[in-house]
Automatic annotation (TrEMBL):
<dbReference type="Pfam" id="PF24364">
    <property type="entry name" value="DUF7520"/>
</dbReference>
<keyword id="KW-0812">Transmembrane</keyword>
<keyword id="KW-0472">Membrane</keyword>
<dbReference type="InterPro" id="IPR055942">
    <property type="entry name" value="DUF7520"/>
</dbReference>
<keyword id="KW-1133">Transmembrane helix</keyword>
<protein>
    <recommendedName>
        <fullName>Cox cluster protein</fullName>
    </recommendedName>
</protein>
<feature type="transmembrane region" description="Helical">
    <location>
        <begin position="55"/>
        <end position="81"/>
    </location>
</feature>
<feature type="transmembrane region" description="Helical">
    <location>
        <begin position="16"/>
        <end position="35"/>
    </location>
</feature>
Length: 98
């Protein structure tokens, strides 16, 4: 009996994850642009995560910050998924020869 993993197109999951990641990064930039556009009326600088590091509240700066943070977090998450997938694949190959 064939499992779903054997009948799926190779690399389809990776394409879906990259497409989803690109969409999330683009949305982060768009939302950052909106927040920067509206927030610059009230404040000129914002502290990052409550630290002494600040960024100017302009549309481009907040959009760039959103893109950078979402790219970093998604890259870390996707890297961990890739690592788990490789580790699981290595274990599966060692069981085949038994």
């Amino acid at each position: 009996m064939n499992s779903d993993a054997e009948t799926a197109a190779p690399g389809l999951g990776r394409k879906i994850m990259l497409g989803l990641g690109a969409t999330i990064v683009a949305l982060s930039g768009a939302i950052g642009w909106l927040v920067g556009s509206n927030g610059s009326v009230a404040i000129s600088e914002a502290a990052i995560l409550g630290t002494d590091v600040t960024i100017p509240v302009t549309p481009a700066a907040v959009a760039l910050y959103g893109v950078a943070v979402s790219t970093l977090l998604l890259g870390l998450l996707f890297g961990l998924v890739e690592l788990a997938s490789r580790l699981e694949g290595d274990e599966g190959e060692s069981d085949v020869g038994r």
